[in-house]
Design goal:
Chain lengths: 754, 81, 158
């Protein structure tokens, strides 16, 4: 309590260094335990039966034959997961997505599950389950789903956000609008206007570790869940609610997580595993196959976006407008709304208007994917910005600098910005040697900007000081990319001790207070704030103990460089007491020494990035090669710069995959045709060059060290940066992501034919 | 008295108004009075509304004070990756 | 179904196990022998997280049957460190932060070990193509390539 989160400029000793991460050795020796690496005595194997149809009414499910198969210990359907959501529509959607109730809504939708003594028996049992489907017409394309007469996915959904309440149900669950000024008037002032339509295909987060959990429900109503997740406290809440349990009786332990990127913020298999375990009376391990990961979990929205931007001859943008249609899977979502908020966030605009439509389709329920919804909007907007710069005869970077948002600008999503980093990232990009490097034949250079909000949220941290003076730090935000290292640095910084004296762990849900999940780039931002607060609380106790030892008032004791120091000339002969000395005496000065912190880490600073890339296009085949790539991004303060670089590089690589290769391909039957890493191709090592990074540090005023989130923004610019590079290399404007060789070749040939 | 701008879909909850004036010292009081004046807000507040105060977005700090003359925006609560 | 009796050498130790004829080497390693360092990312040989070295050949253990290990020699990530002494590649992966989530790391280490055994002085391009059978979704490969380059330099000098 009474924690002051405001930024104070200070010199750092630990923060900003690059030590080896505390979980490193376990991860290079194979000892680290991920979701599927944990087993319990007597555990059963869980498997899920999934709909092969994109849209079908479930008339009945006969599980009797499966139940009779020797070795099968439980078979469940939606009947075993009754609706306990009490009118909470979002939770009901989660429940229905975990196990289809009246209709299967996409290829891969779970309809039943079994637990058996081994995998072979479980697989056989799935084949014995008879589902009586009435196949219904389906729709997977975003634009088709919006058309009059499209197959209706949920007849209880009426478009929200319209002036008049609609009388007919629709696949559009919501319309939202953002902006200010008068775009009609703004376009009237423009000398040049660019207007284009864009499409992006659906992608998957593509984490290498499939969803995995081990559930153990006891007949006394208590349960344990071991699971790979970005938020074990949130999983506990969701599972407890869906199964009618008390949250405190469900202990959830997060395993090491083999990638999440937003995809492990949602429950799929966990309530099913718990329900199987409850019915079987034994532990159940449920691990998704890669095919299931693609068909049933994850994906981002497929989109269709129209953009119109106008500018005066002097390069000032006078108006900007976008209509964004995002798929949300077969349930209501808010993905287009986020696109509508982020689309023009980089710019200073007097007249701006964005409209978002949330569109239901027979695809898996859309999940968050790293700065969700922002990359697609940035692709459309930044492509049009580049085109407009060309029409004006202005340099692409100069045009953006001229129109960049700055402190005091009213953002396109409403509020006025504080200190922000879009301008500095653009200036850094302009001055970067990459911008001046020569280009070869068939090569083009592109650049683009990106924005993301960043979140904070509820956070709880414990810092315990051992009798030997070593420090254990228990955090509740799952470590997705090295945060135990950065949080250990922060604890060392506050306490004034060495990094090696701190050991950070991720505590389970029964050992620590509630934490929101690691999403919205909040892990290091939020938990570092809680760690600073916990360390300061511990220092208060350390000072009290030193004062007690010296028998002087605590107000005369200060904490400096890991030592309690008596302040004032009268204490001249008192030698400073180290943390180690105070800890060693703690048993006799009042017992264990610890610092705790429970807070809401709010005020996460918004984040901006500018990317530059060089692409070579083969005009004969349409294939592309990334020649050079540079990321410039504001980190506020890089706590562990190596892992900040890692976030920049990883986001860029995911964006490159999205831009050039990755897409969900559905057949006419509504079935996913490429549910595997062979046909859904993510970038491999030989596809990429080194990814150069430049970290800018524009302090976040709402964090003691100035930290901003860094995880997500790096995936926002690549789609557009690459599209602009391809356009400059091949002389054609690409409007459909991914820019796979056939699409590029078709565009080149269409251009040749005029 | 603070002036609150209702953004996105939130305006419709106040009968199409985009700005409302409310006497509130902090976010908690703001939400309570909003729900009293415009009952349609209640389920939205339960689900989560973000409050931008002079450009900084607060999602959960209901004790956050609303300075006189501050620019206050209500935004939908977002998902992240 | 009757089990198949297999006798094999893993990381220098003799192992004997019974497995089903359709059981993969990966499942045997993980579920029967407790060697969970090799991971299943796809089960179809596309991601390389389950990489092991089988008689000096880099393979995806999800594409090898447990029964095929009879009389052969297998190296897994668990066998790379000697006692508490990390292999140079392991050390360099730590120093260069060549991992974020770490799920792909055992596969990359085994693939890199195999690569450097066959080509002790690889160019960047040879490293990139040599590791192209292993997927990493976190790092963008930059720091992995640098770690392997650094390890190669150290190992050449050794």
């Amino acid at each position: 309590m009474n924690f002051d989160p405001r930024f104070s400029g200070r010199q750092f000793k630990s923060v900003g260094t690059r030590p080896i991460r505390p979980d490193g050795v376990d991860k290079v020796t194979g000892r680290a335990r991920y979701g599927a690496d944990f087993s319990m005595a007597g555990q059963l194997v869980g498997r899920v039966l999934r709909s092969p149809h994109a849209h079908a009414r479930i008339r009945g499910i006969d599980t009797s034959k499966a139940e009779q198969l020797p070795g099968v210990k439980a078979v469940i359907t939606a009947a075993d997961l009754p609706d306990l959501t009490n009118g909470d529509a979002a939770m009901f959607d989660i429940l229905d997505n975990c196990m289809a109730r009246t209709k299967a809504l996409y290829d891969g939708h779970a309809v039943a599950a079994v637990a058996a003594v081994d995998a072979r028996t479980a697989r056989q049992a799935l084949k014995l389950i008879e589902v009586d489907y009435e196949i219904l017409p389906h729709v997977t394309d975003v634009d088709e789903a919006m058309q009059h007469g499209a197959p209706l996915i949920n007849d209880a959904i009426f478009t929200e956000g319209l002036e008049e309440k609609p009388v007919k149900p629709s696949n559009v669950s919501k319309r939202t609008q953002y902006g200010h000024g008068d775009v009609h008037e703004g376009f009237g002032q423009a000398d040049f206007i660019v207007e284009r339509s864009f499409k992006t295909e659906q992608t998957h987060q593509g984490y290498i570790e499939p969803h995995a959990c081990v559930a153990n429900v006891s007949s006394d109503g208590t349960a344990d869940l071991w699971v790979c997740t970005q938020g074990h406290f949130v999983y506990r809440q969701h599972c407890a609610q869906l199964l009618g349990m008390e949250a405190s009786k469900l202990r959830v332990t997060s395993s090491e997580i083999g990638g999440g990127f937003g995809g492990k913020t949602h429950v799929w298999a966990e309530p099913v595993a718990l329900a199987l375990s409850r019915k079987a009376g034994r532990p159940v391990k449920l691990v998704m196959t890669r095919d299931e990961v693609f068909r049933a979990s994850g994906p981002t929205s497929a989109t269709s976006i129209d953009v119109k931007i106008g500018a005066r001859k002097d390069g000032t943008i006078t108006a900007a407008e976008a209509t964004l249609r995002y798929t949300s899977g077969p349930y209501a979502g808010m993905w287009a709304e986020i696109g509508a908020m982020t689309a023009f966030a980089c710019y200073r605009l007097d007249n701006v208007k964005t409209v978002g439509y949330e569109v239901l389709v027979n695809r898996p329920k859309t999940a968050a994917y790293r700065a969700p919804s922002a990359p697609m909007a940035a692709f459309a907007v930044e492509s049009a910005v580049d085109e407009l710069a060309k029409e004006l005869g202005m340099d692409a970077v100069e045009f953006r600098i001229k129109n960049a948002a700055q402190e005091g600008t009213r953002s396109s999503y409403g509020p006025v910005y504080g200190p922000i980093g879009i301008g500095p990232t653009l200036e850094a990009a302009k001055d970067h040697p990459h911008m001046k490097a020569p280009l070869g034949k068939n090569q083009g250079r592109g650049m683009a900007c990106g924005f993301w909000f960043n979140f904070g949220g509820q956070t709880c941290t414990d810092l315990n000081i051992g009798m030997d003076g070593s420090v254990s730090l228990a955090v509740g935000t799952v470590d997705v990319g090295g945060s135990r290292a950065s949080l250990s640095l922060v604890a060392a910084e506050e306490l004034g001790i060495d990094y090696s004296q701190v050991k950070a762990i991720v505590a389970d849900t029964s050992s620590l207070g509630y934490n929101d999940m690691t999403d919205g780039s909040r892990g290091t931002f939020s938990s570092s704030m809680a760690t600073i607060s916990a360390a300061r609380n511990a220092i208060k106790i350390l000072r009290e103990r030193a004062a007690q030892t010296w028998d002087i008032p605590v107000d005369d004791v200060v904490w400096e460089k890991g030592h309690a120091i008596a302040r004032g000339e009268k204490y001249g002969n008192l030698a400073a007491l180290s943390l180690k000395e105070i800890a060693a005496a703690s048993g006799k000065t009042g017992g264990p020494i610890a610092g705790h912190s429970e807070l809401v880490a709010d005020g996460a600073g918004v984040s901006f990035a500018t990317h530059i890339c060089d692409i070579e296009v083969d005009p004969e085949t349409g294939s592309t090669r990334v020649i050079r790539y540079t990321v410039v991004q504001d980190a506020g303060k890089a706590v562990h710069p190596t892992y900040v670089e890692g976030q920049y590089q990883g986001g860029a690589a995911q964006g490159i995959g999205w831009a050039l290769n990755e897409e969900y391909i559905y057949g006419k039957d509504g079935r996913l045709q490429n549910a595997g890493f062979l046909d859904y191709r993510i970038p491999v090592c030989s596809d990429l060059p080194m990814i150069d990074t430049q970290i800018l540090e524009i302090p976040n005023p709402n964090h003691p060290y100035g930290v901003r989130g860094v995880g997500e923004t790096s995936i926002v610019p690549p789609l557009a940066a690459i599209a602009n590079a391809v356009s400059n290399a091949a002389g054609v404007r690409m409007t459909h992501i991914p820019m796979s060789p056939p699409r590029i070749l078709a565009a080149i040939e269409a251009e040749r034919e005029g | 008295m603070v002036e609150v701008t209702l953004w996105g879909a939130l305006g419709q909850l106040a009968g199409g108004k985009t700005k409302v004036e409310i006497e509130a010292k902090d976010i908690r009081e703001l939400f309570r009075k909003l729900a009293e004046q415009y009952p349609a807000f209640e389920p939205w507040i339960d689900k989560g509304i973000a409050v931008a105060i002079d450009g900084t977005i607060y999602r959960d700090t209901w004790s956050k004070e609303l300075p006189q003359g501050a620019e206050i925006f209500l935004l939908p609560r977002l998902a992240g990756g | 179904m009757a089990g198949v009796a297999v006798s094999t050498t893993i990381n220098g130790d003799n192992y004997e196990y019974l497995c089903q004829p359709d059981e993969t080497l990966l499942d045997v390693l993980r579920d029967r022998l407790g060697l969970t360092g090799a991971k299943e990312g796809c089960g179809t040989g596309d991601c390389g997280a389950c990489s092991v070295i089988l008689d000096n050949r880099l393979v995806c253990s999800c594409l090898v049957l447990g029964a095929e290990a009879e009389g052969r020699t297998i190296e897994t990530v668990e066998g790379m460190a000697q006692g508490d002494q990390l292999h140079t590649l392991q050390q360099k992966f730590l120093e260069h932060a060549a991992l974020q989530c770490g799920i792909c790391t055992p596969g990359f280490l085994i693939a890199a070990k195999d690569l450097l055994a066959k080509n002790p002085d690889p160019s960047e391009e040879e490293i990139r193509f040599g590791l192209a059978g292993n997927l990493c979704r976190c790092t963008g490969y930059d720091k992995i390539v640098r770690a392997v380059q650094d390890a190669a330099t150290v190992m050449k000098g050794a």
